[in-house]
Amino acid sequence: MKKFFLSLAFCGLCFFANSQNASVEKSTYGIQSGILGLWLHNETALSKEFALRSEVGFDTGLWAGSYYDKVGFLLAPVISLEPRWYYNLNKRERKSRRTDGNSGNFLSLQTNYHPDWFVISNYENIRVISDVSIIPTWGIRRHIGSHFTYETGIGLGYKYTFAKAAGYLKNESDLALNLHLRIGYRF
To answer: What's the rounded Cα separation, in Å, for the pair 1 and 161?
Structure first.
Protein backbone atom coordinates (compact mmCIF):
# COMPACT_ATOMS: atom_id res chain seq x y z
CA MET A 1 0.00 0.00 0.00
CA LYS A 2 2.90 2.36 0.80
CA LYS A 3 4.38 1.78 -2.67
CA PHE A 4 1.03 2.60 -4.27
CA PHE A 5 0.73 5.94 -2.43
CA LEU A 6 4.39 6.79 -3.09
CA SER A 7 3.88 6.04 -6.79
CA LEU A 8 0.70 8.11 -6.84
CA ALA A 9 2.43 11.02 -5.08
CA PHE A 10 5.37 10.85 -7.50
CA CYS A 11 3.04 10.85 -10.53
CA GLY A 12 1.12 13.78 -9.01
CA LEU A 13 4.34 15.77 -8.55
CA CYS A 14 5.33 15.08 -12.17
CA PHE A 15 1.89 16.23 -13.33
CA PHE A 16 2.12 19.50 -11.38
CA ALA A 17 5.69 20.10 -12.55
CA ASN A 18 4.67 19.67 -16.19
CA SER A 19 1.57 21.84 -15.88
CA GLN A 20 3.66 24.88 -14.97
CA ASN A 21 6.23 24.64 -17.80
CA ALA A 22 4.37 26.66 -20.43
CA SER A 23 5.99 30.01 -21.06
CA VAL A 24 6.47 32.55 -23.83
CA GLU A 25 9.39 31.98 -26.17
CA LYS A 26 12.68 33.70 -25.38
CA SER A 27 12.62 35.56 -28.71
CA THR A 28 10.59 35.15 -31.88
CA TYR A 29 10.63 37.09 -35.16
CA GLY A 30 8.06 37.30 -37.91
CA ILE A 31 6.31 39.24 -40.62
CA GLN A 32 2.56 39.87 -40.73
CA SER A 33 0.15 41.23 -43.29
CA GLY A 34 -3.37 42.42 -42.70
CA ILE A 35 -6.12 44.09 -44.65
CA LEU A 36 -4.44 47.47 -44.22
CA GLY A 37 -0.70 47.02 -43.79
CA LEU A 38 2.53 45.06 -43.52
CA TRP A 39 4.65 44.70 -40.35
CA LEU A 40 7.90 43.11 -39.11
CA HIS A 41 7.91 42.16 -35.43
CA ASN A 42 9.95 40.69 -32.59
CA GLU A 43 8.67 39.35 -29.29
CA THR A 44 11.11 39.05 -26.41
CA ALA A 45 10.25 37.21 -23.19
CA LEU A 46 10.13 39.33 -20.04
CA SER A 47 8.91 36.48 -17.80
CA LYS A 48 7.00 33.18 -18.21
CA GLU A 49 3.76 34.91 -19.27
CA PHE A 50 4.90 38.38 -20.39
CA ALA A 51 6.54 39.36 -23.68
CA LEU A 52 7.52 42.71 -25.17
CA ARG A 53 6.53 43.03 -28.82
CA SER A 54 8.34 45.60 -30.96
CA GLU A 55 7.12 46.25 -34.48
CA VAL A 56 7.91 48.38 -37.52
CA GLY A 57 5.81 48.48 -40.62
CA PHE A 58 3.42 50.33 -42.86
CA ASP A 59 -0.20 51.21 -42.15
CA THR A 60 -2.38 51.73 -45.21
CA GLY A 61 -4.83 54.53 -45.92
CA LEU A 62 -7.52 54.63 -48.60
CA TRP A 63 -9.84 57.46 -49.66
CA ALA A 64 -12.23 58.21 -52.49
CA GLY A 65 -15.07 60.54 -53.35
CA SER A 66 -16.38 63.03 -55.87
CA TYR A 67 -13.57 65.51 -55.05
CA TYR A 68 -10.84 63.11 -56.17
CA ASP A 69 -9.84 61.98 -59.67
CA LYS A 70 -9.03 58.46 -58.49
CA VAL A 71 -9.04 56.32 -55.37
CA GLY A 72 -6.27 57.49 -53.07
CA PHE A 73 -3.81 55.05 -51.51
CA LEU A 74 -0.95 55.58 -49.07
CA LEU A 75 1.52 53.65 -46.96
CA ALA A 76 2.78 55.43 -43.83
CA PRO A 77 5.44 54.10 -41.44
CA VAL A 78 4.43 53.00 -37.94
CA ILE A 79 6.51 52.01 -34.90
CA SER A 80 4.86 49.98 -32.15
CA LEU A 81 5.83 48.79 -28.70
CA GLU A 82 3.45 46.44 -26.94
CA PRO A 83 3.82 44.56 -23.66
CA ARG A 84 1.70 41.40 -23.83
CA TRP A 85 0.42 39.08 -21.11
CA TYR A 86 -0.28 35.59 -22.47
CA TYR A 87 -2.68 34.54 -19.75
CA ASN A 88 -3.76 31.06 -20.83
CA LEU A 89 -0.53 29.23 -21.76
CA ASN A 90 -0.74 26.72 -18.88
CA LYS A 91 -4.37 25.94 -19.68
CA ARG A 92 -3.48 25.38 -23.35
CA GLU A 93 -0.64 23.06 -22.38
CA ARG A 94 -2.88 21.06 -20.01
CA LYS A 95 -5.32 20.55 -22.91
CA SER A 96 -2.40 19.50 -25.20
CA ARG A 97 -2.79 22.56 -27.43
CA ARG A 98 0.11 24.38 -29.04
CA THR A 99 1.92 27.16 -27.19
CA ASP A 100 4.98 27.44 -29.46
CA GLY A 101 5.54 30.84 -31.03
CA ASN A 102 3.43 32.36 -28.24
CA SER A 103 0.19 30.75 -29.40
CA GLY A 104 -2.42 31.82 -26.90
CA ASN A 105 -4.77 34.53 -25.74
CA PHE A 106 -3.26 37.84 -24.64
CA LEU A 107 -3.98 41.20 -23.07
CA SER A 108 -1.72 44.04 -24.15
CA LEU A 109 -1.12 47.76 -24.06
CA GLN A 110 -0.41 48.66 -27.69
CA THR A 111 1.52 51.91 -28.19
CA ASN A 112 1.82 53.17 -31.79
CA TYR A 113 3.70 56.13 -33.24
CA HIS A 114 3.08 57.33 -36.82
CA PRO A 115 5.99 59.66 -37.68
CA ASP A 116 5.82 62.20 -40.51
CA TRP A 117 8.98 60.85 -42.18
CA PHE A 118 7.70 59.85 -45.62
CA VAL A 119 4.59 58.57 -47.35
CA ILE A 120 4.25 56.21 -50.31
CA SER A 121 1.17 57.25 -52.27
CA ASN A 122 -0.40 57.50 -55.71
CA TYR A 123 -0.99 61.23 -55.06
CA GLU A 124 1.70 63.93 -54.89
CA ASN A 125 2.47 66.00 -51.77
CA ILE A 126 0.62 63.81 -49.25
CA ARG A 127 1.64 64.14 -45.60
CA VAL A 128 0.72 62.21 -42.50
CA ILE A 129 0.18 64.13 -39.29
CA SER A 130 2.21 62.45 -36.53
CA ASP A 131 0.25 60.79 -33.74
CA VAL A 132 0.67 58.53 -30.72
CA SER A 133 -1.95 56.04 -29.56
CA ILE A 134 -2.20 53.85 -26.46
CA ILE A 135 -4.78 51.09 -26.75
CA PRO A 136 -5.53 48.29 -24.26
CA THR A 137 -6.16 45.25 -26.46
CA TRP A 138 -7.44 41.69 -26.13
CA GLY A 139 -6.34 39.22 -28.77
CA ILE A 140 -5.43 35.71 -29.80
CA ARG A 141 -2.57 34.21 -31.80
CA ARG A 142 -2.59 30.72 -33.29
CA HIS A 143 -0.28 28.70 -35.53
CA ILE A 144 -1.08 26.98 -38.79
CA GLY A 145 1.64 24.40 -39.45
CA SER A 146 5.14 25.15 -38.23
CA HIS A 147 5.71 28.72 -39.47
CA PHE A 148 2.40 30.38 -40.40
CA THR A 149 0.31 32.29 -37.86
CA TYR A 150 -2.91 34.20 -37.63
CA GLU A 151 -3.71 36.86 -35.07
CA THR A 152 -6.74 38.93 -34.24
CA GLY A 153 -7.39 41.58 -31.62
CA ILE A 154 -9.71 44.33 -30.52
CA GLY A 155 -9.24 47.32 -28.24
CA LEU A 156 -10.32 50.88 -27.55
CA GLY A 157 -7.93 53.54 -26.30
CA TYR A 158 -6.54 57.07 -26.59
CA LYS A 159 -4.95 58.87 -29.56
CA TYR A 160 -3.05 62.17 -29.50
CA THR A 161 -2.41 63.94 -32.82
CA PHE A 162 0.42 66.50 -33.17
CA ALA A 163 -1.60 68.76 -35.48
CA LYS A 164 0.21 72.03 -34.55
CA ALA A 165 3.41 70.70 -36.15
CA ALA A 166 1.46 70.35 -39.42
CA GLY A 167 0.14 73.94 -39.31
CA TYR A 168 -3.18 73.52 -37.50
CA LEU A 169 -4.20 75.73 -34.56
CA LYS A 170 -4.13 73.06 -31.86
CA ASN A 171 -3.25 69.43 -31.20
CA GLU A 172 -6.12 66.97 -30.94
CA SER A 173 -6.98 63.95 -28.85
CA ASP A 174 -9.59 61.32 -29.60
CA LEU A 175 -10.65 57.72 -29.10
CA ALA A 176 -8.66 55.13 -31.03
CA LEU A 177 -9.88 51.72 -32.14
CA ASN A 178 -7.58 48.76 -32.68
CA LEU A 179 -9.32 46.08 -34.71
CA HIS A 180 -6.89 43.81 -36.49
CA LEU A 181 -6.81 40.51 -38.34
CA ARG A 182 -3.38 39.45 -39.56
CA ILE A 183 -1.75 36.46 -41.23
CA GLY A 184 1.96 36.00 -40.77
CA TYR A 185 5.12 33.96 -41.11
CA ARG A 186 7.38 33.21 -38.13
CA PHE A 187 11.11 32.84 -38.84
So the answer is: 72
What is the rounded distance in angstroms from the CA atom of residue 125 to the CA atom of residue 109?
33
Buried residues in 69-82 as b, exposed as e (16+ CB within 10 A): eeeeebbbbbebeb
Within 10 angstroms of residue 19's Cβ, the number of other Cβ atoms is 12
| 7 found inside a domain | no
Exposed/middle/buried for residue 155 (C-beta within 10 Å: 0-12, 13-18, 19+): buried
pLDDT digits (tens, 9 = 90+) for 70-125: 899 999 999 999 999 999 999 999 999 988 889 999 999 999 999 999 999 999 98
- What proportions of the chain, in percent to the nearest 5, are helix, strand and coil? 15, 55, 30
126 located within any domain: yes
| Global confidence as pTM | 0.82
In a domain, 175, yes or no: yes
Q: How far apart are CA 104 and CA 100, in angstroms?
A: 9
